[in-house]
Amino acid sequence: MKKIFFLVLFMGILVLGNAQTLSGTITDADTKEAIPGVAVYIPDLKEGAVSDINGVYKISNLPKKKFLVQVQYLGYANVVVTLDFAVVTTKNFALKQSATEGNEVTITGVSQATEVKQSPVPIVSIDHEYLQQNMATNAIDAIAKVPGVSTVTTGPNVSKPFIRGLGYNRVLTTYDGLRQEGQQWGDEHGIEADEYDIDKIEIIKGPASLMYGSDALAGVVNIIPTPVAPEGKIQGEVLSEYQTNNGMIGNSAMLSGSAANGFEWLGRVSHKMAMDYQNKYDGRDYGTAFRETDASGTVGLNKSWGYSRLNFSVFDDLQEIPDGSRDSLTGQFTKQITEADLFRPVVSPAELNTYDISILHQHVQHYRLYTTNNFILGNGKLAVNLGYQESIRREYSHPTAPDVPGLDLVLNTFSYDTKYYFPEKKGWQPIVGINGMYQSNNSSQGTEAVIPSYNSLDAGAFAVVKKTFNRLEVSGGVRYDSRFFNNSALYVKPNASTGFDETVTGSDTLGASRPFGNYKHTFSGVTGSFGGSYDVTDKFLIKANIARGYRAPNIAEISANGVHPGTNVYQIGNPDLSPEFSLQEDLGFSYTSKAVVASLDLFNNDISNYIYNQKLTNNKGQDSVIVTGNQTFKYTASHAELYGGEFSLDIHPTDWLHFENGFSAVFAVNKGNGQPVADSAKYLPFIPPVHLTSDLRATFKKKYTHFSHLFAKAEVELFAAQNRVFLAYNTETPTPGYTIFNIGLGADITSRSGKTLFHFSVMGNNLFDAAYQDHLSRLKYFGYNYATGRMGMFNMGRNIGFKITVPLDLK
């Protein structure tokens, strides 16, 4: 990979004379005054500039081709235009003041950068301003308020995204367009990304297998990291954050530069740590503390032939493992101190109020090295993205042997993604591509083998085309995927000195047990998508799409054989499973005026071979027990249907006041396999309840003596009761409804000359300290509280957050 990168740098030196420049002036359309600080950005080139004090901007090293250009500034309507740099070298922009920026641009799930509203597939773009004005405890929680999006959580630092009721390996998470690979099959396995390194998050709500292959059956969450500084600048930031509930302390520092000759660089380091969180029913919830350290960096070259970048990231997290066990008299939390676990002492107040990580914890490390490249070849364009990831996940579950991991998984992933963009001809924009990955997962080093070691190879090829007919824009494509999967037999014996199971090979397998056998299989599938958007008027748009999604079974669903720590479930895989296929229809409407922005998205998703857990019984109809104290489950498949939609309404009677509302509902039924489905199993598991969010927000554009970009907001989140649950085998329990109130306040503090000294914000989540359990929280199924008579652990109580960001502008 490094050789490829330096070859590209050498190519850039050879073509220095072929560069084009775009420059111009940005002014207020009404006052005609120059506007400094406006961002002019070309998403397909990852290149941009910021207007100076005279409103002048300049972008160098541009190829002589057509590209979409986005112009953004807070308080003004976004401008999105397509410019041919072979013809246009000067372009002035006159921005109009507006309460809504609008015209968001997406780079996720489409052939190239395009306006969100024109995409036939529902896409939501979460910008940096939204992330600044909402408080979260990890990267995925930041999108939990988006209609149609929810999270399965195991405490404040472990969250997995769900889109319209589907998650795990059905939602593909990407980082800068690269597949995020880190044991997504696990309930308590979060997404390994630095929340301070996020500039935007783009979400596809619906099958995206056409562009991404397996694991994008329900959609995609694309985390877009901090961009490099504009041309000719050296910029950065220093950030500090404190949250009162669990004493979370977060710090991050970033510095980036971009030279006029096209050389770019960026570096960031982050750290955060927290004690156990608390609520008014549980006090502090033992086993929820964490300590996370992150780093990332980029070097690249941007020239008239395109761009090439080499990127890396490091994620290192120590995360406690909660089990919710309580003292039978007081209801206080207890802890495991021996392997036999016959006696548990009460956790002391000192242990609950410390940043130290307990003996029983996870250690998750994720290393990523990847290169993104975009080459201009004549009138066409070639994108080549290559990546390597190593995910190391260890769970330390032996209290008397704290250095011996129970679960020890090492996953190595090599991914590739190549696309060729044909020259546009008579409005047709075709693209072809291949992408996939090779994975090798080693699970033989721990004492508790839940899954076997395996390797797999994914390969997929696709073709997509887009065409614009006046007000109508249509797009569609087809794809074929194959996954070649192979897991290895594994033999274990007790170690003579420790008594723990260990993996053995060769002659040592004599007399050993074999929890996993050899298995080979090839999964394949054809997917496709077709849809369009139609501008009925300048304000009203209709769009529709039909798509077929595909997902190959994951390693746990095929081959699991054992008790995963903390679940009380003996899990058995099913080697006879077939891939899941979905057929989803989407219909959307949007309306935009000076005072109102509204949208309605409806969907119906029919899934064949929907994989879920089924409890096993013996020939007498009783529970099948392999390990005492653990129920036995085996994966099976059924026919499922999910339907629902999202509605959003933003009313802004003035240019500074917004009343934003979001509503989402998902309904899901188990249709069985031609046989009657019991009432207890007629609903699918892990379906979020009806969710309503209302946000009253004031954003003041006027600059005061030492304040600018001042905002204040009050927000209410209403979650309805969820009674449509998978009751069979005590898998789920109904969840009562609840309401949460949040507030926020923030501003830029400026010098007399108007320069921003720092940005501050104060956020309050769950302001009235409501005691509640989110329906998708795994902690709600933990131990019984004998003192209160309540099951499980409750979510975080009142949390006040303080954040200060100091911008750095060195050139």
Task: Supply the key terms.
mainly beta; 5 helices; globular
Structure notes:
The protein is mostly beta strands and 811 residues long. The chain has five helices and 47 strands. The chain has a 22-stranded antiparallel barrel. A five-stranded mixed sheet has the order 10-15-16-13-14. The protein has a four-stranded antiparallel sheet with strand order 3-2-5-6, with no helix packed on it. The two termini are 32 Å apart. Mean pLDDT is 89; it is low at 4-17.
Number of helices: 5
SSE class: mainly beta
Largest sheet composition: 22 strands, antiparallel, barrel
Residue stretches low in confidence (pLDDT < 50, at least 5 long) are 4-17
Helix content: under 10%
Nearest-integer average pLDDT: 89
- Rounded to an integer in angstroms, the radius of gyration calculated over CA atoms is 27 Å
* Shape, principal axes of CA atoms: globular
Strand fraction band? over 45%
Oligomerization status of the protein chains: single chain
**Tally of DSSP β-strands:** 47
Distance between the termini: 32 Å
Write the layout of secondary structure elements.
Layout: H1 2-14, E1 20-28, E2 39-42, E3 47-50, E4 56-62, E5 66-72, E6 79-84, E7 93-95, E8 105-106, E9 114-115, E10 123-126, H2 128-132, E11 149-153, E12 159-163, E13 171-175, E14 178-179, E15 198-205, H3 209-212, E16 219-225, E17 233-243, E18 248-258, E19 263-274, E20 278-279, E21 283-284, E22 290-303, E23 306-320, H4 349-352, E24 361-377, E25 380-396, E26 407-421, E27 428-442, E28 454-469, E29 472-487, E30 490-494, E31 501-504, E32 513-516, E33 519-535, E34 540-551, H5 555-559, E35 561-563, E36 569-572, E37 580-592, E38 596-615, E39 631-651, E40 657-672, E41 691-700, E42 707-719, E43 738-750, E44 756-765, E45 784-785, E46 790-791, E47 799-809
Parallel strand pairs: 1-7, 13-16, 36-39
Antiparallel strand pairs: 1-4, 2-3, 2-5, 5-6, 8-9, 10-15, 11-12, 13-14, 15-16, 17-18, 17-47, 18-19, 19-22, 20-21, 22-23, 23-24, 24-25, 25-26, 26-27, 27-28, 28-29, 29-33, 30-31, 30-32, 33-34, 34-37, 35-36, 37-38, 38-39, 39-40, 40-41, 41-42, 42-43, 43-44, 44-47, 45-46
